[in-house]
Design a protein that fits this description.
282 residues; transferase; PiNMT-like; Rossmann fold; S-adenosyl-L-methionine
């Protein structure tokens, strides 16, 4: 399952990343619109604000050697490397993304300190105790084995290093709302199909996995309200002339993903989709 899924993810991002960059810029992740989601700001500034808010929330003030898991075209990797004057490595399943990220590192004059490569986050090609910050912004949802993924994050971190994991989740099921309903399951399965996800889990489940891996000083949060407006902004951007032309050139997979953006917007509206944060120390 994992190798087949990885190929699907690779093909999805190989075919779509150029278009997303043209529409959204280098940051292929949610934006931050204030804790209540009420800030009226530019989409690209909201994406930068998300990075800064995550660093503030996690109390990470410095880093020397950073791993960005699921780096896309290097938006967060380059931002963090420049901010902290650090070495950084970004990994992705997509050769197209790795190549574009490498090109962008050269444009930023960071090719000596930042590198990108194709690698599987569930089987990383790095030595133990290597990085002092592992940053995973919206890639956990793609992992077929969440436990193996977090064990790998733990393994490559130096003792005392920090994990910042931000990922799509479904609502907790250990509350009065109970287990997911059949309708909620169908909604999630449509999201899985369109965006090449194996499944998502709840934030409490991520916490339990992290603790079982040996992480300590763990804290988590739910920023669903803060990021939910992003999807309405993205939906509007799809109808810009350059986006329509780009969609036609990108193929059916990308077209299907673009016209299924409402799945995520409705998922946030009904409280099914959650934007989960987890920070922990090795």
């Amino acid at each position: 399952m994992s190798s087949s899924l990885n190929r699907q993810i690779q093909q999805f991002y190989d075919s779509s990343s150029r278009l997303w960059e043209e529409i959204w810029g280098e940051h292929m992740h949610h934006g931050y619109y204030g804790r209540a989601g009420t800030y009226k700001i530019n989409r690209r500034q909201a994406q930068i604000d998300l990075i800064e808010e995550l660093l503030d929330w996690s109390k990470v003030r410095t880093a020397e050697n950073i791993l960005d898991v699921g780096c896309g075209i290097g938006g967060s990797t380059l931002y963090l490397a420049k901010k902290f004057n650090a070495q950084a490595t970004g990994i992705t399943l997509s050769p197209a993304q790795a190549a574009r990220a490498t090109q962008r590192a050269q444009e930023f004059n960071l090719e000596e300190t930042v590198r990108f490569q194709v690698a599987d986050a569930q089987n990383m090609p790095f030595e133990d105790n290597n990085f002092d910050l592992v940053w995973s912004l919206e890639s956990g949802e793609h992992m077929a084995d969440k436990s193996k993924f977090l064990r790998e994050c733990y393994r490559v971190l130096k003792p005392g290093g920090t994990l910042i994991l931000v990922t799509w989740c479904h609502r907790p099921t250990n509350s009065l709302a109970g287990e997911l309903t059949s309708d909620e399951q169908r909604h999630l399965e449509e999201i899985y199909r369109v965006y090449r996800l194996p499944y998502v889990i709840s934030l409490p489940e991520y916490e339990a996995i992290a603790l079982s891996c040996g992480f300590r000083d763990l804290h988590s949060d739910d920023w669903s309200m803060a990021v939910a407006p992003f999807w309405d902004v993205v939906i509007d951007s799809v109808f810009e002339p350059k986006a329509i032309l780009g969609l036609l050139q990108s193929g059916w997979t990308t077209i299907q993903a673009a016209f299924s953006l409402g799945l995520m917007s409705r998922g946030y509206q009904r409280g099914l989709i959650r934007f989960g944060l987890l920070c922990a120390i090795k």
